[in-house]
């Protein structure tokens, strides 16, 4: 509804399994909004670039999620927790 008040978005997560090239319009972001892409590297670049162009200052891709998932899997198998921060 065009007359409805738009609430600001706190967190926008891109979780599509493919590279979309059209993003929602009319969203309201705040200085605290976080845009997060579950993919990483080149696959996240289009979404991250779009979010920055929309005024989102806090953006992140999924690399840290991947690294920490691997660290916890390693701990489960070996009993030793690697320092995942070293990989980032």
* Share in β-strands: 15-25%
Main beta sheet, described?
3 strands, parallel
User: What order do the helices and strands follow?
Assistant: EEHEH
Give the tally of β-strands.
3
Query: Which structural class should the secondary elements be placed in?
Result: alpha/beta
Radius of gyration: 16 Å
Number of helical segments? 2
Roughly how many Å apart are the termini? 43 Å
Low-confidence stretches: none
Layout: helices, strands, pairs:
Elements: E1 9-14, E2 29-37, H1 42-53, E3 58-60, H2 63-78
Parallel strand pairs: 1-2, 2-3
Describe the structure.
With 88 residues, this protein is an alpha/beta fold. The protein is 32% helix and 20% strand. It contains two helices and three strands. It has helices at residues 42-53, 63-78, and strands spanning 9-14, 29-37, 58-60. The chain has a three-stranded parallel β-sheet with strand order 1-2-3, with helices on one face. It is elongated and about 50 Å long. The mean pLDDT is 88.
Question: Any descriptors?
Answer:
88 residues; 20% strand; 3-stranded parallel sheet; 3 strands; alpha/beta; single chain; 2 helices
Q: What's this, in brief?
A:
By secondary structure, the protein is of the alpha/beta class.
């Amino acid at each position: 509804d065009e007359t409805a008040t738009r609430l600001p978005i706190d967190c926008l997560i891109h979780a599509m399994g493919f590279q979309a090239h059209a993003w929602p319009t009319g969203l309201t972001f705040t200085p605290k909004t976080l845009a997060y892409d579950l993919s990483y590297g080149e696959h996240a670049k289009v979404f991250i670039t779009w979010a920055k162009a929309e005024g989102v200052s806090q953006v992140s891709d999924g690399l840290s999620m991947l690294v920490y998932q691997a660290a916890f899997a390693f701990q489960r198998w070996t009993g030793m927790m690697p320092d995942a921060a070293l990989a980032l």
